[in-house]
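User: Some background: our group keeps a shared notebook of sequences we're curious about, and every so often someone picks one and asks for a predicted structure to add to the entry. Today it's my turn. The entry only has the sequence so far, pasted here. Could you supply the structure so I can complete it?
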Amino acid sequence: MRAIIEPPTFSAAGALLEEPFSLYLFPETPGSIVRYTLDHSEPSETNGTPYTEPIYIDETTAVRAAAFMEGAAPSASVTRT
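Assistant: Of course. Here's the predicted structure to add to the notebook entry:
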């Protein structure tokens, strides 16, 4: 049975904000890689952008993220708008 890894966490809760900001994504399982999408699609090992730096948010945006690690089942995806 493959281990399931924890979903990533976001530096900001979903909300309407007045100013642009940088969104940070944090892998909760050591060694996992976070991938994210901005087009409402489900992140997967072949779909989405590997998270390597903060995401600049300057308009209403839906961010979906999940964590992946070799030998483990992917985390559930998490969405914030």
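Suggested note for the entry: The CA atoms of residues 68 and 74 lie 5 Å apart. The two ends are 34 Å apart (CA to CA).
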